[in-house]
């Protein structure tokens, strides 16, 4: 994949990101193993008017999966985060490694900044001295006037109603097999958080399984900060993933965290969207 397309994909996506960069030795600081990326943070991110308290923190995500032959897969990663009182949000994560000009492998750091005030998002990569130092700035499209909905034919209305009924039945079945329990309060990274656990049971035979399976999700959230401080997903089909803040400092972060680094070239793109906000193209600005 060309470099420009890869970086554009990284800017837009992303709960799970796969990069084609070579990996380092297992004991290297940039070594990685497979896992599931559980996102923490605030539902207010990127939404003007829903800004929560500013902070700087670090999230550690661990993954463990036990295989049928007795083997176990482990992985661990850390992400640095910051959010200011205007709703700007920065994430800094390690993304594998690449060979440097000295012939040695060096860790790569991917930085993403979302600015709901300026309606932009930008990203850049640090640690690769063989590639151009570029900051990609994406200008988000302005909201467009919705197109008036076209009336459905009787046949289309019937099909739509059947689809809604099927979705409602499926949701009711899932709720019937799900139980929720409150876990009280505990302290995470020095912050008080309220927790709850949901357990969903997949009946025997529903997915080709001989016995019932339980999927457990646990969430711990700080109401004061508007942050999810810990999330655990334990799925026998995919393993156990835990994401938790291990460092958290309240207060305004360093403004420099939201600015491009010195010595980088700025490349701007204007993203164009349809009436539902989907991205349909981009225009390069010189």
The span between the termini is: 23 Å
Count the E strands: 13
Order of helices and strands: HEEEEEEHEEEEEEE
Strand order of the largest sheet: 7-8-9-10-11-1-2-3-4-5-6-12-13
The fraction of residues assigned to DSSP E strands is over 45%
The helix count comes to 2
Query: The biggest beta sheet, please?
Result: 13 strands, mixed
Radius of gyration: 22 Å
As an assembly, this protein is: single chain
Low-confidence stretches: 1-27, 33-38, 42-50, 274-286
- Total domains, how many? 1
Mean pLDDT: 78
Summary tags:
single chain, 286 residues, mainly beta, 13-stranded mixed sheet, 2 helices, 13 strands, 45% strand, disordered N terminus, disordered C terminus
Summarize the structure.
With 286 residues, this protein is mainly β. It has two helices and 13 strands. It has helices spanning 3-12, 154-176, and strands at residues 55-66, 72-83, 89-99, 105-115, 120-126, 134-139, 178-188, 191-202, 213-222, 227-235, 239-250, 265-273, 279-285.
Structure description:
By secondary structure, the protein is mostly beta strands. The protein has helices at residues 3-12, 154-176, and strands spanning 55-66, 72-83, 89-99, 105-115, 120-126, 134-139, 178-188, 191-202, 213-222, 227-235, 239-250, 265-273, 279-285. The chain has one domain (3-145, 184-285). Strands 7-8-9-10-11-1-2-3-4-5-6-12-13 form a 13-stranded mixed β-sheet. The longest helix has 23 residues, at 154-176. It starts with a helix and ends with a strand.
């Amino acid at each position: 994949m060309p470099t420009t397309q890869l970086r554009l994909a990284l800017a837009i996506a992303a709960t799970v990101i796969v990069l084609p960069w070579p990996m380092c030795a297992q004991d290297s600081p940039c070594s990685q193993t497979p896992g599931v990326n559980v996102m923490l943070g605030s539902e207010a991110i990127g939404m003007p008017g829903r800004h929560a308290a500013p902070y700087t923190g670090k999230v550690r995500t661990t993954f463990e999966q036990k295989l049928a032959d007795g083997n176990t897969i482990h992985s661990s990663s850390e992400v640095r985060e910051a959010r200011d009182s205007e709703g700007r949000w920065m994430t800094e994560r390690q993304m594998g490694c690449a060979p440097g000009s000295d012939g040695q492998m060096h860790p790569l750091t991917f930085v993403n900044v979302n600015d709901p005030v300026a309606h932009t998002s930008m990203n850049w990569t640090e640690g690769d001295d063989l590639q151009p130092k570029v900051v990609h700035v994406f200008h988000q499209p302005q909201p467009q006037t919705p197109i008036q909905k076209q009336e459905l034919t009787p046949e289309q209305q019937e099909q739509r109603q059947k689809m809604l009924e099927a979705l409602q039945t499926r949701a009711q079945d899932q709720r019937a097999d799900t139980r929720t329990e409150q876990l009280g309060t505990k302290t995470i990274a020095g912050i008080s958080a309220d927790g709850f656990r949901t357990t969903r049971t997949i009946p025997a035979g529903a997915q080709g399984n001989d016995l019932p399976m339980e999927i457990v999700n646990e969430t711990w959230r700080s109401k004061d900060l508007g942050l999810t401080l810990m999330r655990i997903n334990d799925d026998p089909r995919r393993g156990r993933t835990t994401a938790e803040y291990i460092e958290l400092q309240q207060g305004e972060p360093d403004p420099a965290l939201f600015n491009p680094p010195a010595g980088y070239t700025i490349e701007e793109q204007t993203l164009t969207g349809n009436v539902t906000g989907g991205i349909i193209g981009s225009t390069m600005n010189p």
